[in-house]
Amino acid sequence: MDITFNQLAKLVSFIDDIESQTYPEAPSFIHSDITGKVLDILLPKLPLNSKILDVGCGQGPALDIFKTKGYQSAVGIALNNEDVCICRKNGHNVSKMDQSFLEFSDASFDFVWARHVIEHSVFPYFTLSEFARVLASGGMLYLEVPAPETSCHHETNPNHYSVLGRGAWLSLLNRCGFNVNDDVRFGFTTPMGPDEYWGFICTKS
């Protein structure tokens, strides 16, 4: 398909507008707690020389754990300027970058950590294909998303664009060349009522 300059300009403008809707992501108890529990399970499977990409790293809760555990080749990306600055001040290697347009070479990483980021993508199929592109064959992806239509109604969050059902995520992961080896569910209660997150532990074919 041939893309005209005007079509490309519209897309760039649309993406720029979405970037303007980002907000700083300070660590919260529920997210930090789940991050710690999942990494306690996954990191024993990863050699210390593994190259790790933390997509949408926020202010660095996962990067802090990678560093503490001795992983020296962990890098993060975020779109919000404040998050990037805070991570850098804390000594982390973080770049401002869109998760759908990763500026890394093919097969650059052994592990892609992507918690609560893909729902911010307007084209998750494309974004997942980018995760697959930068992940080495046999590498691991951890993808975690909010479940739709819970008491928290994540689908109505102003910068959530892709809050999909479990079957849709499994299908997209499969189409992008991922094998889903295990999945986990985190249920908890918020002031709004019951909520749930889904985690997918995958390897690249």
Features:
205 residues, alpha/beta, Rossmann fold, seven-stranded mixed sheet, 7 strands
Structure notes:
The longest helix has 15 residues, at 5-19. Helix content is 33%, strand content 28%. The radius of gyration is 17 Å and the shape is globular. The chain is built from six helices and seven strands; from the N terminus they run ααβαβαββαβαββ. The relative contact order is 0.13. With 205 residues, it is an alpha/beta fold.
Summarize it.
The protein is an alpha/beta fold. It has helices at 5-19, 29-42, 61-68, 81-89, 124-134, 166-175; strands spanning 52-55, 74-78, 93-96, 109-115, 135-146, 178-190, 193-204. The chain has one domain: 3-Layer(aba) Sandwich (Rossmann fold), CATH 3.40.50.150.
Q: Would you give the CATH topology?
A: Rossmann fold
Helix content percent band: 25-40%
**Mind telling me the CATH superfamily name?**
Vaccinia Virus protein VP39
Cross-sheet strand order for the largest sheet: 3-2-1-4-5-7-6
The string of secondary-structure elements, in order, is HHEHEHEEHEHEE
Supply Rg: 17 Å
Keywords: Methyltransferase, Transferase
GO molecular function: methyltransferase activity
Organism: Pelotalea chapellei
Protein name: Class I SAM-dependent methyltransferase
